[in-house]
Amino acid sequence: MSGKNHTTAVRRALTSDEAQSWLELVDGGWALFERINDEFVRRGLSLSDLRILEVIGQSPRQLVSEVADAVHMRVSTVSRMIGRLCDVGDVERLESKADGRYRLVRLTEQGQATLETHVLLRDRVIRRYVVDALTADEFAALGSAFGKIRAALAAADAGE
């Protein structure tokens, strides 16, 4: 917390400038999410599917609970989503050789192609509405800021 007393920082209300920045972040974030989602829906794609496929694609085999943790969703929700992705042939479930009670998931060849289609669209949309709207320094600062926010959340979770 930049050397500040954590208790004081938690109790202190936002200044009017901080509140305005927060409202702009929330409004801009939701507007961006809506635009990205609309772009995906118009093409019959799903932003949620992209997130699940990205995470599964990062490792050859993962537990559903690991995928759920990575996408910040409940295991039951992710399990249903993976079931649907299995039904369309993008993901397959495998039995764990270490423990038969657990099911692993991985991308199929079709799933890799679906992921590539999703990523191309994501990249076009993010370039148009985020990267091109900011300077290179602003975009780098945005990434850095959210990296710090994620680290603060992880530290708070570890301290619970």
From TrEMBL:
Alphabetical list of Gene3D superfamilies matching this protein: Winged helix-like DNA-binding domain superfamily/Winged helix DNA-binding domain
Domain HTH marR-type per the UniProt entry, residue ranges: 1-151
Pfam families: MarR_2
InterPro entries in the record: HTH_MarR-typ (IPR000835), MarR/SlyA-like (IPR039422), WH-like_DNA-bd_sf (IPR036388), WH_DNA-bd_sf (IPR036390)
PROSITE patterns (alphabetical): HTH_MARR_2 (PS50995)
Family matches, as PANTHER family: HTH-TYPE TRANSCRIPTIONAL REPRESSOR YETL, TRANSCRIPTIONAL REGULATOR, MARR FAMILY
Protein known as: MarR family transcriptional regulator
Organism: Gordonia paraffinivorans NBRC 108238
